[in-house]
Amino acid sequence: MASEKTQVVTRVTAILNAIALHGAQGARLLDLAQETGIARPTVHRILQELAEAGFVEQRASRRYGLGSALYLLGLGAPSPINDFAGLKKVVHRLADQTGDAVYVAIRRLDGVHYLMRADGSYPIRAEIVEVGETVPLGVTFAGVALLSWHEPEAVEAQLLANERLRRRMKAVEMSDVQDTVTAVRQAITQVHERGYFFDKDTVLHGVSGMAAPIPSKTSEPYMAITISAINDRLPPARVDELAPLLLEAAREIGTFIR
Amino acid sequence: MASEKTQVVTRVTAILNAIALHGAQGARLLDLAQETGIARPTVHRILQELAEAGFVEQRASRRYGLGSALYLLGLGAPSPINDFAGLKKVVHRLADQTGDAVYVAIRRLDGVHYLMRADGSYPIRAEIVEVGETVPLGVTFAGVALLSWHEPEAVEAQLLANERLRRRMKAVEMSDVQDTVTAVRQAITQVHERGYFFDKDTVLHGVSGMAAPIPSKTSEPYMAITISAINDRLPPARVDELAPLLLEAAREIGTFIR
DNA sequence: GAAAAAAGTCCGTTGAACGGACTTTCCGTC
DNA sequence: GACGGAAAGTCCGTTCAACGGACTTTTTTC
């Protein structure tokens, strides 16, 4: 493993990516060392140096999070979304049409990051994720939809790797790993056949959702759009009814991104 | 210079920051080597490694720009703006009140990055900068307003350092360096006395503007708000009239940021 | 199409990066 | 409030990854 002919730069990027996956609450030094496979003193030293440059910040809890210098760099980095206003319009339209909550998420390393949400008129709302959150691939509806573009072996590896992270998710009762792997495999077949993923109770008991990958002009799908509601709002008949709307929205958004 | 006890991480951050300052058109290898003071082969190697991680991208022109991995990391980094919707409202209100173009910019390393723009109803519009652009500190109205929080020596160093960058700006006729330094010194005094900066013709012949630093709860000002219009729209009497509106907007926005 | 300039590559030398071992700080528990 | 286990932080001798001078290739300019 060690002899890739370069160390520090690769390590720096690995550490930053690892921190990103820990989201808002920040990452512990020990976790970062384990996840990157780098010795703890080394991670510590690199973190100090990154902190000096404002690329990471150490919170009061001693956990490390991304620093605001990265926010500023991010402003200058090319966004894959060419027309955010257009995207927004499509999402709100879908929320109006369906009455339910619509999310848009973007693939972010081994996770999905929730970019925006539009609420429909139906008063009962299931708050599975918040905008700005990053959740491991394969955990949420959008995450499964995007996972479907991976090789089967990669999928399985991902799911096992997720286990630890997944347990962190509040209010989620998980079935055991093997069950999950099988379930997600079936889900992936579904995405390939119908173009979208539908399921209930998997993410949060009582909540149904359907998610479609958003096609990209230049690469495999890296964004997804989700409709989510309580189980009673999404019986099979209504899923069939909503599917064309969901897929059309995905197609349209595909024209607004790289 | 060499013995700061750390190299690569500092260098990586320096290179990324240097690239950021080159904006959309990208940076040449040679420029980056000069600007960071690192030997060209070294910069080249680090760039290759960063490119592999998606942190930088090499364009067809062989120039280097920030990569989309940084966009994704930026999504997870803490934004200093707590309430973007509130900020937007204030800016649009000011544009409506004045009829002129209003910009909001954020300090970004040795430059200012333009975050948003709202147009007023007046039909003649001076497009000095575009949203998303980064311009060296002290070049635009907002840039001068923010420069006023630096130590005098730092200001002078900044201005001299800007000269090279500044020449790149399209359509800008510059007076010679000494004149500029003197002019900016006066401008800074003005900001300290009145709380805002007003000038005409400095940035672009025929264009006047006034800019106020936005106070931050937690640090010195790092954002600014600008009103800009053609000279005839901003005679001294109107400047006096607009100043309270500008300062009030700046104060309000200050409550929406860190 | 020659010359200049920039980009990219090679490789021997060396000091920055590494990480095992140690110390300090934090925090839950009784 | 002080004990103890766990995580964070520091030290320092060893070593190999990073460095950059010198060279080659590609691009641009005239």
TrEMBL record, chains A, B:
It comes from the Bacteria. The keyword Transcription applies. SMART domains: HTH_ICLR. Residues 69-258 form the IclR-ED domain. CDD domains: HTH_ARSR. InterPro entries: ArsR-like_HTH, GAF-like_dom_sf, HTH_MetabolicPath_Reg, Tscrpt_reg_IclR_C, Tscrpt_reg_IclR_N, WH-like_DNA-bd_sf, WH_DNA-bd_sf. Keywords: DNA-binding, Transcription, Transcription regulation. The keyword Cell membrane does not apply. Residues 6-68 form the HTH iclR-type domain. This is IclR family transcriptional regulator.
